[in-house]
Amino acid sequence: MSQRASSLGRLLTTAFVTASVAAFSALVTAPSVSAQLTADLEVEFPEGFGLLSNVRELPDGRVLVADPLGQILAALDMDAGTMDMWGREGGGPREYRQPDAVYALPGDSTLLVDLGNGRLMVIAPDGSFVRSRPIAVGGGATPGNPGGMQIAIPRVVDGEGRIYFPLRAFGGSEDSTAIARVGWASDVVETVARYKPREVQQSGSGGRISIQALPMSPEDDWAVGLDGTIALVRAADYHVDVIHPDGRVSKGPEVDHTRIRPRDAEKQAWLDDAASSGLSIRMSFGGGQQEVQFSRGGPGGNRSIDDLDWPDRMPSFRSGSTRIDPEGRIWVGRSTRAGEPSLFDIFDGEGRPIAQVTLDPNSSIVGFGADGALYTTRTDFVGLQWLQRRRVR
Question: Does pTM surpass 0.70?
Answer without folding.
Answer: yes
